[in-house]
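Title: Prediction job returns without error message
Component: structure pipeline
Severity: low
Priority: P3
Assignee: unassigned

Description:
Job completed but the reporter wants confirmation the result is attached to the right record. Sequence as submitted:
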Amino acid sequence: MITITNIKTYPVRIEHGNQLIIKIETSENGLYGWGASGLSGRELAVVGAVKHYAHFLVGKNVLQIEAHWQEMYRSQYFEGGRVLTAAISAIDIALYDIKGKLLNVPVYELLGGKQRQYVECFASLKFESKDELMTKAQTLKQEGFNCIRLYEASEGPEPYVARKSMANLVAWLPDLRKEMGNEMTIGMDYHHRLTLPETVSFVNRLPLGTLDFLEEPLRDENPQVYQELRKMINLPLALGEEFASKWQFWPYLKDNITQYARVDVCNVGGLTEAKKVAAIAETNYIDLMPHNPLGPICTAATLHLLAASPNVAWLEEINTPVEYCGTNSEMFYTKQPVLEGNHYQVPSGPGLGVEFNEALAKKATFEIKEPPHLYKKDGSFTNW
């Protein structure tokens, strides 16, 4: 029996942001796996959870992935929650990496086998002005992207005024649609910054067909509010990047509140949980549009999930000809998926197909990077 002998955590600054990488070592010489947590901005909290899980996972059979998932999730009275499932995600992904390497097959073979040769991406487009929006969109179109997801930068010292943002976008987006044509899929991420009436007002002011989907205009804690929004607007929704289990996805999928499932394998509970979310989504003809902002381990794990899933739209990509977030730094990732135009080829090697520079990580510093704290004109805080 091959057992888990150690679980190491590496919270590291990689260029513009932080990542939490874990390594699971085994009793088989040279056999190990890489995993990653998706809870950006709260990496040290996840480190503590991983250490709790390591306490009882060391010595266990490395092949019993689902059993380990169930034990991690159910072993405390206060089960679930984003910190715990981010830790479970990292461990679960690393165990799949190990099992794929041991059997000398890509991880997707453990999930049912490959259904596609490549996975298309949507390009994340961050902008502050109309000129920047139009210029970047034209570049992405010329580079072959057929889906772009817009994200308005709001990280400066000025107060965030939702109605001002809405007024600008209502003026800019119809021109963007004319410039891009009807073949381009255009989505907008509002990052929880609107209220219910603001969202309805924003959508109703846009000419029909301007946008193809709206991502996370509201916070997600109350599915009933989103259900009411679903009745009030005629625009598809893309939700779920923060969801921490299949149970959190359930009301949004069963009632078709969301039309795209923004599952994040590094937050939802790893590949074990993500494949169950994919199956639930499939029953309601909902495609996966995974969240993927944090680095090559998340990208690789998601590619394996999408390779083995029938219901796939696009994978998120933030390192494009118009954006560079540094999450895939070659200093830290000596082997990783490579973007080819607007898509990734499905990995073909054993395991995830990612290698992390552990020696460099041991020397690297970690600096807490706090997300922007947005506030309104009256000084009260709002959502980032």
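Comment from assignee: result matches the submitted record. DSSP finds eleven helices and 15 strands in the chain.
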